[in-house]
Amino acid sequence: MNKLFLKITFSFLIIASGCLKILAQAVDVDVVTVGKGIFKNSVTKKGDPANIEFTISLSNASGKVQNLTSININLTPGKLIADGTPFMVGADEMMRHEGNMLQQQTGMPLRSKDNNMYLMFKNSLSDYMLIGVISWRTFLCRIYPENGIIHIIGDGDNKLLKAGEKIAFEKVVYLHDTSWQNLLDRYANMIAAENKVPVPQNVQWKGWATWDYYRQYFTADAVERNTKDISNLGVKPNIVQIDGGWWKQRGDYFDVRDNLPGGIKVMAEKIHKAGYKAGLHFDGFRASEESHVVKEHPEYFVHTAEGKLVELDRDKVTNDLQVVWDYSNPGAQQYITSVMKNARENWGIDYFKIDFMRQGLTKGINFLPVTNVERYRLGILAMRKGIQQAYFLACSPNFGVNIGLVGATRTGPDIDPDYEAVKIRAAHNSGSYYFAQKLYNCDPDYLVVRSASESNKEDRKKPSLTFDQAQMWTNFVSIFGNVRLASDELSLLTDEKKKLIEQTFNMPFFTMCIPIDLWDHFKTDNDAPNMYLAKATDGTIGLGIFNWDDKDASFTVSGFKNTSSFKDFSGTKTWQTAGNSLSVSLKGVHSVLLQYKGKESFDELRKELMITAL
Predict the structure, then answer these.
(1) Can you state the percent helix, strand and coil of the chain, rounding each to 5?
(2) What was the pLDDT predicted at 189?
(3) CA distance 118 to 112
(4) pTM of this structure
(5) Which of 46, 138, 535, 595 is 20 to 30 A from 195 via CA?
(6) For 284-331, where are the E strands, in sequence order?
(7) What does the pLDDT read at residue 218?
(8) What whole-number distance in Å separates Cα of residue 477 and Cα of residue 284?
(9) Mean pLDDT in residue range 453-472
């Protein structure tokens, strides 16, 4: 292997808030290839000193074809990051355990070195720094701190470069701000600009979905029954989502299992007749090895160096091994486009949930000499061609590679009807709050409220949610994201639990939801924030306070400049500030959603408010 080293230093003088500060960044580029290639690399920067974007170009000057192994970027701040500095690992995936936001400290053992979005450092209460990438077109990066500097390692994935060929590395940014909220806001703006992200659709979804209760084993009768029951709740639903398991074999997406009379087309027609949109789930990146499409077209799938199909885990229904679509093959692209076009135009599907997207980044030998990221993005474009203008939801994704291609994403793992899952999912979703209305519409996952007594033998999970535990989840879903889909068997729920669903569905939808006490949390997977400030589409301002612990707690929200009053969204109880603070006492595992009545704007409140627990 060959390594080529380039080092460029940028220095700036900053005068801000009466403080003189020198920022200097040294950027090292180290290219590793399979052969002994010679590379000429360049680094350029643009932006002001606190808002720097680096463009890195790689050029094969070896005179022969080279295959990239890795591109190693070392970014050295003017002042090395001191050990003990707290930093946030940005959420970068929905499902992977290491994909959630997590707070760590430099100099301590790292959870992993796999993050591929950003790291945000808290140098002081008024000095925050973010280093990350803002594009994901060719290479997936690993970003981590070590010995006071930041390492950004691009996976070359054997990318072939001809003699003299140039290629752009992913864009790297180095940002400073006195506010961590402003920092993430600026980061989102830079991502949106770089990837030409269209404004996410202004749409809110309310309805019912098959997955959490029935998983792959739903029936047409269950869908009809719950479509009727959700209509009777008085919540004005607009969608019924048919989730995974409707096919005979994963990948054969023109064939519907025999026990769904009339297939998806008839089910969608009944949903439309009820006055709702019809949603449908696809596993967009895997297929069962025993499916017709794999047997007839093995060239549509990723192979090993030995010429065998790359195999993943087994299908939980058929027990068949699963393989990975190779969307660099034009035939695979045409197939998946025709699948989506059939669902859109023939079956009448309005809402496409494309799942298991992370598996699309599995490495292997492709039809064309492209990286796993390039292959993945070709697949998304092929799906979009068939989906047309219908709603496209990414599920189990890597967040970065979809940006600019898909307008909506799940932001947390699949919910389960137990309280530990509620806490973990609330924390995971919260780490991606800054996506909303800039990069994606955010989906926190299904609304589940059931206990064991609200279940039967058809339930594919083990529910245990008490009323209070269920309300913690319904309150979170009420203020986060644009999707509220119930996924219990509604006929088995108590009237009290049905009322929870009704209250959630009748809440205003919030376009922004900021975890105000972010730096007090995210120290473990289930360490969700205690306070959220939310802004609704109609301008309503909400305050969500959550006591996730079993013990009673009192919270003081301070920073109000004017006397303010609050009303419980779900009742008639009112609160008022005393001085510049609001006091709220909550029993263990309780939460409250308050409507703000005051003179200060959302932007003023987000900058001023802080919460302390007593």
Answers:
(1) 25, 35, 40
(2) 97
(3) 13
(4) 0.95
(5) 535
(6) 286-288, 311-314, 321-324
(7) 97
(8) 26
(9) 97
